[in-house]
Amino acid sequence: MIERHVTFQIIPGKEEAFEQLFRDEYRPAMAAAPGFIKAELLRAQDDPNQYQMVIRFATKEQAAGWRASTPHEMLRPKLKMLYEKSRLEVYEVVL
Prior knowledge:
The chain has 95 residues and is of the alpha+beta class.
């Protein structure tokens, strides 16, 4: 199992739009992808503009398939309009 943690620094004032995009478009599109297990959105307690998207797929190939998919490519520009920077960390779930 693969878990991806994507940390976003959201543009001030765009927090609600970011949450709405994740809830209404991004997570539903991802949920239709092969191997999808779950996706959560976390907001840092000490920085209301920092979010972490936690995404889990059954295999790294299926996670890569989502990233290369048409729905992801279509949502990417909408997402990029809402954040200043992002950082990705990928984990293999061992237990």
